[in-house]
Design a protein that fits this description.
Elements lengths: L1 E2 L7 H5 L3 H12 L4 H6 L5 H6 L2 H6 L6 E5 L3 E5 L9 E5 L11 H22 L3 E5 L13 E6 L18 H16 L5
Parallel strand pairs: 1-2
Antiparallel strand pairs: 2-3, 3-4, 4-6, 5-6
Length: about 190
């Protein structure tokens, strides 16, 4: 692993010790894939995909990355193909293939780390803002959830979203879709 030119204030204390990494690797290896665990995971056998996951290999220290930050929940490192210099990926240490797989406590850790990375990008790189994005399955290049934190400047050439936006045909169509979403949310467990 290599270190990035900038780090968040307390990252040096955490990265100097391998203990959090060793514990998370040991915990992952102790979990066994069983028919019960697959059923409990809504039919997704995520354990085999971990073997081929480049982000899990980065967490395990088997693949190089320009490390920006790490703690017991997540890691942040430079994207190998950045939109702009400083483009950082924030990932959970545990393999989580989709957004829904991330437990609330880890999600809070991921997003607060993304927020801190954004502040560090402004301070270290002089960015004027950030673009924060998360692809879930569609356009997700690595099947391990990751948050993109991209430093932005006015006139940098990145135009809003990368896809064409469209309007609803009518207020009635928008109201119907909002109603469908509310009905689906009512069937899900509360946050």
């Amino acid at each position: 692993r290599t270190r990035c030119a900038f780090e968040l204030p307390h990252a040096a204390n955490v990265t100097a010790s391998a203990a959090p990494h060793e514990a998370s690797t040991k915990d992952r290896n102790e979990r066994k894939l069983t028919p019960e665990s697959v059923r409990a995971n809504r039919g997704r056998a995520t354990r085999p995909s971990m073997a081929a996951c480049v982000f899990c290999a980065i967490v395990a220290g088997q693949e190089p990355a320009h490390l920006v930050y790490e703690d017991a929940i997540c890691m942040a490192f430079l994207d190998a193909r950045p939109l702009f210099p400083g483009h950082t990926l924030v990932i959970p240490r545990a393999h989580r293939a989709t957004f829904r797989d991330v437990p609330r406590g880890e999600l809070e850790g991921l997003m607060s780390t993304a927020q801190r990375i954004s502040a560090a990008q402004e301070k270290a790189l002089g960015s004027e803002g950030t673009f924060v994005a998360l692809n879930d399955r569609v356009s997700q290049s690595v099947p391990h959830i990751h948050v993109h934190v991209v430093p932005r400047r006015k006139g940098d050439g990145l135009r809003g979203f990368f896809w064409p936006r469209q309007k609803y045909a009518s207020d009635e169509e928008a109201a119907a879709i909002a109603g469908q979403l509310r009905a689906a949310l009512a069937t899900l467990p509360p946050p």
